[in-house]
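Check this:
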Amino acid sequence: MERKQFELGDVVQMKKPHPCGTNAWKVIRMGMDIRIKCTGCDHSVMIPRLEFERKLKKILSRAGEDPQS
């Protein structure tokens, strides 16, 4: 299976939504573990990289992109 490409600062969508109702997370730390922060309530979670890659649905926006254009 192909590994998903994501970077620090990307906003990603996970398979299951957060209890606050939003499904967008920002990647704020990378390493063996990935720390992601909910864009709705600012709750952060650290999960192992393999589990993160398994639960990642798609990348909503890249870190260097301008969201207006």
Q: What stands out?
A: The two ends are 32 Å apart (CA to CA). Residues 11-61 form one domain. The chain has one domain: 11-61. The chain has a mean pLDDT of 87.
